[in-house]
Amino acid sequence: MPEPLKIQYDKPADMLILTIRDAEATKSKEVRFGIIVDADAKNQILRYKIRNASEHILNLNQCENNPQATIKQALDHIAGAISYNGAQPIP
Question: Which one of 9, 52, 63, 73 is least enclosed by Cβ atoms within 10 Å?
Answer without folding.
Answer: 52
